[in-house]
Specification:
The structure holds 2 protein chains of 2 kinds. Chain A is α+β, with helices and mostly antiparallel strands. Chain A is built from 8 helices and 21 strands. Helices cover about 25% and strands about 35% of the residues of chain A. In chain A, strands 7-8-9-3-10-11 form a 6-stranded mixed beta sheet, with helices on both faces. A 5-stranded antiparallel beta sheet of chain A has the order 2-1-4-5-6, with helices on one face. In chain A, a hairpin with a 2-residue loop joins β13 and β14. Chain B folds into 2 domains: about 240 residues, Orthogonal Bundle (MetI-like fold); about 260 residues, Orthogonal Bundle (MetI-like fold), CATH 1.10.3720. The chains are: A alpha+beta, B mainly alpha.
Amino acid sequence: MAELVAQDIHVRYGKNDVLKGVSARFGDGEIVALLGRSGSGKSTLLRAIAGLETPVSGRITVADRVLFDSEAKVNLPPEARELGLVFQSYALWPHKTVAANVAYPLKLRKRPAAEIDQAVSEVLAGVGLEAYAARYPSELSGGQQQRVALARALVYSPPLILLDEPLSNLDAKLREEARLFIREVIKTRKLTAVFVTHDQVEAMAIADRIMLLDQGRIVQQGAPEALYSQPESLFVADFMGVNNRVEGKIVARGEGLVQIAVGDQRLWGVDKTDGRSDAGTGLVRVEQVGVGEGQGDNHIQAALETSLYLGGRWEHVFRAPGGARVRAETQRPLAPAAYALHVPREHLWVF
Amino acid sequence: MDRKLRIGVVVGTTLAVLAPLLLVVWQSLLTGPFFARGVTLSGRAFLFVFSDGDFWSALANSSLVAAGMTLIATPVGAMLAFLLTRTDLPGRRWIEPLILAPMFISSLVLAFGFVVAFGPVGVVSLWARDLFGVVPWNLYSMPSLILIAGLTHVPHVYLYASSALRNLGSDVEEAARSTGAGPLRVALTISLPMIRPSLLYASVLVFFLGFELFGLPLVLADPQGRLVLATYLYKLTNILGVPSYQLMAVVVLVIVAIALPLVFLQRKLLAAADRYVSVKGKATNPKPISIGAWRWPAVAFICAWLLFTVICPVLALVLRAFVSSWGEGVNPLAMLTLDNFRQVAAYPSLVRGVVNTLLIASVGGAAAVCLYALISLAAHRWRSGWATLLDYVVLLPRAMPGIIAGLAVFWVFLFFPPLQPFRATLLSLWAAYTLVWMAYGMRLVSASLLQIGPELEEAGRVTGGGPARVSFDITLPLVKAGLVGAWLLIFVTFLREYSTGVYLLSPGTEVIGSLLVSQWATGAVDIVVALSTINIAMVLGGLFLIALFQRKARNG
């Protein structure tokens, strides 16, 4: 049973507050993604859990074990925390073979040689690298190196595994394979996993739950679908997808709805404003904009400007009379003409 | 390493560095040597030195030499660096190692070489007299000293300028070429200005080395009675019959007081230069600039410099070591002999000197590198006031030229009773050598330590290794090659060191360097040239090892 709890973590570099009070609960057997832009504090939180950064205050526990507690003056060194960490650069030791890299944690735990040999070949087989045991890390491809790093973090069966941008050094094709593989490995071993990423697609694909961080705070957390389809703030809405975004004026309010004026177009959308300001920002996912010829509520007349073929679908850029640009997707190419774009009111969020 | 051990190393290093300096300060305030009876505190030593006309002329000469050699070495070194790293100069590959040669040969040995080649009866001088009727130069003059000091310090500038140029992307030069600038113009208006921080650092370094100069002025300026600070200090020992330690201490303090601000200035400039370069990012495979017909005058210029500063002095010295006499109308080839070397072999103290030199350079060098590694590891990735303190402490020995550090260590071994039995052993010499080259050695070691990504060590910690275990299993194996490289460089450095052993010379602690100084004073030219040749051979052997090691490292 390995529930990880972080309470009110503050981390400071010199005068810079990197984490400004982060509290998070990571359930047993759950895969959680720490998502955010660079500088949001997501890697710092991971390093604080691993013991590589010392918070100025807060408390970190795994199951009943206290790893860090600023009040009780507990600060276990990294080697005593019993967790696995996969580094962004993999951090394989170049002077040790693959087998020696993976065996090192067991050697530190003074396991008998026969047991080490068996554990190493089992875990290497688990990541599909049993044939590479005698190689040096520099003789492996990026994807293989990443599997070794994973094997090294798993071999001593830590209850908790941390992954720092595990996919960022792989090329696009390998990345899709690796995210499936990593999720599978973690789930079969029933581990609690925390992984850091700046890529929302990767986060949604691997994680059971996402925590979105910005400027040292958690701004929203929840299941991937929830973050994607029920964002609580403009930042979350904007971060999680590919969007059309317009600034406008709020001209009318209804039940849970507001009407926003952009140029001479008026659109109804879901009210997510604080109700105090006249200015509003409308946001709609690119895939929610319908392209047709009809007329009616929440329709915009716009001329097609450019089309990009993205493989299997087309992305179009339209120019509305007021000068606003609207992006939309279709399955078929479109001829240059004026189109009516439908922005469904339930998919237009106004912040 | 755990915190206690780290703090212990910092405190130990601080004591070892500060003890000699504090002892010098204490000695400068006494009326006699610190071990004599009835000495009292007084400022008389300062009054004596500061009212001595010789002191002021030595200070003036030192300033003149330092400034003059900086003005010569900086432009020549910068130009050489540009030609060799950025252009398609013919023969670049074999010229480069030769350029660094003056750094590896002891400047005392080079000075002897200049005497043998360009002195009043030198090989080159005699040949010139046959040609012109008179020798058109006077080796024993201030202009000659400044010129030679300047030209022998070109490699220092070259080293920093060329590494900065290599980090510079070639695109900035190609941009200038494509807008219509010629190669010379590119060098003067683009490349060299862009590495200005490195050039500034190198020129401050050369200026600083100018104040430390001992071997060259001892051989070239002494005969005409001109002193610089280091030779003034050396003469103080001999002038007054009794050991005038308090006066020497005052001169030491003056030199340290001049050197210390320069050392801190260098530290600031180096940080600035590093920052400047890192902004540029990594340059990938720079393409050399084609300089067309300029190639030949450029090669001629470099060859002339090489001929004058390295080839002539070294060849003349080696030739002189193998002949019995030398002079007008003598055919050296008819006089070939091994007598000079037999003479060296006949003196047990000289033989000991050769053996000791090898011992101190190999075993002593290895021990020094181990010590430097221990100190570097103590401060490695440690954000703490202690680490900052250590940073400044290891800079202090840089402000002590070899002759001064040797003197101070000699006093420390005289002063502390537990150390006294070791004064006349190689241990005292090793302590002095290690102290003098501490900043250099630490830089070599920490450079390889910094090349290890922090995550390699962090990975060791997270998988369950304690700090000491990680240092031993991960950090040290990864820097092994770097440490061997550092040891080889320290080996060559210790081989050629001469001034540090001057005051520590006693039966049992002879090394070639200090023997050369003392034999030169007695006028034993035959022994001096033979020992110098042996020393050059040793250094060449060391350089050969370095080349082998680098080739091996490159081939994996």
